Amino acid sequence: MDISTLSLAELRRLQTKVETEIRRRSDTAKKDLLKRMQKLAAEHGMSLTDVIGGQEATEKAAPAPKKAAAKPAAKKAAKPASVIKFRHPENAAIGWTGHGRKPQWVIDWLAQGKALDDLRATSAEA
Question: Among residues 48, 49, 32, which one has the least CA distance to residue 40?
Answer without folding.
Answer: 48
